[in-house]
Specification:
The structure holds two protein chains of two kinds. Helix content of chain A is 39%, strand content 16%. Chain A is an alpha/beta fold. Chain A has two domains: 2-124 and 226-329, D-Maltodextrin-Binding Protein, domain 2 (3-Layer(aba) Sandwich), CATH 3.40.190.10; 127-222, D-Maltodextrin-Binding Protein, domain 2, CATH 3.40.190.10. In chain A, the strands form five sheets. Chain A has a five-stranded mixed sheet with strand order 10-9-11-8-12, with helices on both faces. Chain B has three domains: 2-52, no CATH class; 86-177 and 259-347 and 372-391, MetI-like fold; 178-245. In chain B, strand 2 (167-170) and strand 3 (173-176) form a beta hairpin. In chain B, helix 4 packs across helix 8 (262-288). Chain B contains twelve helices and eight strands. Classes of the chains: A alpha/beta, B alpha+beta. At the A-B interface, helix 1, helix 4, helix 5, helix 6 and strand 10 of A face helix 2, helix 11 and helix 12 of B.
């Protein structure tokens, strides 16, 4: 009995021990060990999924690469930890990963009570529903009495409850631990509908037996700003992550991309000069060098390149920029001034 | 001999650090202090680190609104209920699966165990094949097999298999009529209680009479008659205060009635068939542990094979069976946590899954969950130990 309690305590406290070892300052830790341990999903096409050669690709993965390029000078110095929705925050809290870049929604509770900080938004998403076409449903409001397959531990589970409650519809959630099992259950007809972020719906639809037989309903029932997450209390690391997002956006706004970045260094535009470290000490202020933005842009690309390569209209996901366009093109993407 | 000589030769007490009694106490105290010290350090370290990182701690979250929905609930629950209530829902679902699982595993296990000892070659070999197959395949695979390979192939609700016009079997589960109780149903319940009490006292009386006079009594038929007859009579007298609400296909799914979800079916099925294969072997071992002479003696006094099994062999075999049977019950209860793999909302899925994710309070939630499984296991152990003492050899 005493021994059992002791084991329980040990298990509970191990997380705390690991965390204390890693708390020196993630930026210094990362520089010392020479790679970034990046938490990603277990396979969400377009965001983080291994390709046919086994290399991780996707929008979230590209952010990890850009960060490695900015901090360590080489975009390939990233190690990936595939995490389920359930374990992702614990992995970050305990110091197992340096950064969580895994289609994670920014919410107040997560930002405060979990001991985390959101660095910014890489993708504005919203939750939607997918149904088999043969069901004849045209709107989410017709889903009265439906069974809905959903993955555990996501804001999706709560949004769905809110939506059905607000519209006074009854429903049955069928909650799975892994995304693949959730999808398999939907594909075999256990549920009438499948719900997740709209970008995820497009990604998962490709995996179904008959992708054409399924319809993504028009309603988006929630706001899902997705972005990288770091540990609370490590302001320097938070700053590096936050300003890297802005740098990628600023690069797109200034027309700097992976191909012309070297020429752009000679640009007369003072904004471009500051971004690329020709003028001012922006990188030094972040604890990096002044080429901090050049390397990620060169090795990974600006935001537009990252978006188009992974989820854009020419990919299998085929998503339009929409809310993810730059602020001056009708979207929400806005970089704080780099000066 | 040697011990005596040493005692004679050593009248002088050894120095205190060489005294075995002192050393034993000293080292035990040392180890205990170390264990407590390390434990306290770990707890303190965790709390300090969590506070430093601004991770919320404490059990206040149990009173906050949960906001998510759960498909199978035995206790009343809505999205507006608290996390504490969600915990109860998960606990109730775990207990439901465990109780049903233990029930079927025991029955099936006894049947298989006895069948494996049968003199009929086919029956014995079938039982052997069953046991060897099921207990050598990992349980999680069996759960996946029943859930994804078997139950997934059922038709959609609109093409349900219909049994007797009231049961509908489809991929969403088994829809059955639900009982609706009306005024006067209390009398039926009361009569059921009376019937059970009557049956128990008849069984006791019959056993005493058999022990005193040796005259047998048809307890089974009499009890059955009382158990079924009395409530039926009460129902008729109270004017049928019970009617059934039938499931009706409406929209995508059946509305009304009761549903047994395919998750529950798959879980109960795999847990009980898997555990039954172990129980079968335990039962076989228990029966084989009873001396052959006992059976022969029973035949010699003219008992039929059935009566021999029931009155001579099984009561003695139970003494061997119960302790390992207890561990199987514990295993089944703990294995029920695999439910989370197939979306059955048990304690692990609801509480250590959804609630953990929404609140992020991993340490508290995992501690509560572990404490719950520990408590359930200890309670089952206590009950089985009590039953074991009751069945133990009473010397007359």
């Amino acid at each position: 009995m005493i021994r059992t309690i002791f084991y329980a305590l040990t298990a509970a406290a191990t997380a705390g021990l690991v965390a204390s070892a890693a708390s020196a300052g993630t930026l210094d830790d990362v520089k010392k060990k020479g790679f970034i341990q990046c938490g990603v999903s277990e396979g969400l096409p377009g965001f983080s999924a291994p390709d046919t050669a086994g290399n991780w690709t996707g929008l979230d993965v590209d952010f990890c690469k850009a960060l490695a390029a900015a901090v360590l000078g080489d975009a390939s110095k990233v190690k990936y930890s595939p995490l389920s929705a359930k374990v992702r925050f614990t992995a970050l809290q305990s110091g197992e990963i340096d950064l969580l870049s895994r289609n994670t929604t920014w919410t107040l509770v997560r930002d405060t009570s979990l001991g985390l900080n959101f660095a910014g938004v890489m993708f504005y998403d919203g939750q939607g529903f997918m149904v088999p076409k043969k069901l004849g449903v045209k709107s989410a409001k017709e889903l009265k009495g439906a069974s809905v397959c959903v993955q555990i531990g996501t804001t999706t589970e709560l949004n769905m409850a809110d939506f059905f409650r607000a519209n006074k519809l009854d429903y049955k959630p069928v909650v799975f631990e892994k995304a693949d099992e959730t999808l398999a259950a939907y594909d075999t007809g256990r549920c009438d509908a499948f719900t997740t972020d709209a970008s995820g719906l497009a990604a998962y639809r490709i995996k179904l037996k008959d992708p054409q037989g399924h319809l993504i309903l028009p309603e988006l029932i929630s706001k899902e700003p997705l972005g990288p997450v770091v540990r609370h209390g490590d302001d320097q690391w938070l700053d590096v992550n936050r300003w890297l997002i802005y740098a990628l956006l600023e690069a797109e706004e200034l027309g700097v991309d992976s191909k012309n970045v070297d020429e752009q260094k000679k640009s007369a535009n003072p904004n471009t000069k500051r971004l690329l470290g020709v003028e001012g000490d922006m990188g030094k202020n972040l604890g990096l060098d002044n080429d901090w933005a050049v390397r990620p842009i060169k090795q990974v690309g600006n935001y537009a390149e990252i978006f188009d390569r992974n989820v854009g209209p020419k990919t299998t996901l085929g998503l339009e920029r929409g809310t993810n366009a730059l602020w001056n093109k009708g979207g929400l993407m806005y970089s704080m001034p780099i000066r | 001999m040697a011990v005596e000589r040493v005692a004679e030769r050593a009248p002088a007490r050894p120095p205190v650090w060489n005294d075995p009694r002192f050393r034993a106490i000293f080292f035990q105290a040392l180890v205990l202090a170390l264990v407590i010290g390390v434990g306290a350090y770990l707890v303190n370290n965790t709390l300090t680190n969590m506070e430093k990182r601004g991770i919320a701690s404490g059990f206040g979250f149990l009173g906050t609104t949960a906001g998510f929905s759960i498909s199978t609930t035995l206790v009343p629950y809505t999205e507006e209920s608290t996390y504490g209530r969600a915990f109860l829902v998960g606990l109730a679902n775990t207990l439901l699966v465990s109780v049903i699982g233990v029930f079927f595993a025991t029955i099936l296990g006894f049947i298989v165990g006895i069948a494996r000892l049968s003199r009929n070659w086919l029956v014995a070999k079938l039982a052997a094949v069953y046991i060897e197959t099921l207990r050598n395949i990992p349980l999680l695979l069996q759960i996946f097999f029943w859930y994804f390979a078997v139950l997934r192939n059922l038709p959609s609700p609109r093409q349900s298999f219909i049994l007797f016009d009231i049961f509908y079997l489809n991929i969403r589960g088994l829809n059955t009529p639900a009982p609706v109780f009306e005024e006067g149903f209390g009398w039926v319940l009361l009569s059921a209680v009376v019937a059970v009490a009557a049956a128990v006292s008849i069984v006791r009386w019959a056993r005493r009479r058999r022990e005193e006079t040796g005259r047998p009594f048809h307890t089974v038929y009499t009890s059955l008659a009382i158990l079924f007859g009395l409530p039926t009579l009460a129902t008729l007298l109270a004017g049928s205060p019970l009617h059934w609400e039938y499931a009706v296909l409406e929209g995508f799914n059946f509305q009304g009635g009761m549903v047994m979800s395919p998750e529950l079916v798959a879980l109960v099925f795999s847990l009980s068939t898997y555990t039954a294969s172990f129980i079968g072997e335990i039962v076989r071992a228990g029966i084989m542990a009873v001396n052959r002479g006992q059976t022969e003696a029973a035949y010699a006094v003219g008992l039929s094979p059935g009566l021999t099994l029931r009155l001579v062999v099984i009561p003695q075999a139970l003494r061997v069976i119960i302790p390992p049977l207890t561990s199987q019950y514990l295993n089944l209860t703990k294995n029920s946590s695999l439910a989370s793999a197939i979306a059955y909302p048990d304690l692990v899925l609801v509480f250590a899954g959804t609630v953990l994710n929404q609140t992020g309070q991993a340490v508290e939630i995992i501690a509560i969950t572990m404490a719950v499984y520990l408590t359930i296991s200890l309670l089952i152990s206590m009950f089985m130990n009590w039953y074991n003492r009751k069945m133990a050899l009473v010397e007359r």
